[in-house]
Amino acid sequence: MKKLALILSISGLLATGNALAAWQEIGQNEQSTISVDTATLQTQGDKAQIMSLLDFKKPGEDPQTKERVNSIIGLNEYDCTTGQYRPIEFKVFSGNRGKGKLVVDKKTPDSPFEVIANGSWAAGVFNVACRSK
Q1: Percent of the chain having pLDDT more than 70?
Q2: What's the structural domain count of the chain?
């Protein structure tokens, strides 16, 4: 029941958009900038959930709709013990920093955990979400 309440509360934050988000940049490469909203960090046991923003430096394209994509805001869950993560929910936007047209809005609460690749955006977010563990 606590996990459901946690997911619902963070999903509510994601549903309100990024207007309230206090994005803190944690890294970048030649393709994108990654930011997190530490106010959304929730922990329960060895798991942590946090919202992140992946902001592209060059537009991408949604493979299904062929629409322009410039940013993704997502809620991910991290297993701080195993170094794995899974997406809970994500939104894809045509504009940078979660602005513009909403291209994709997908909830994936039952997605499996995946290994986090070294140097990936997920590794950076993992370090923020799990650093206090």
Answers
A1: 83
A2: 1
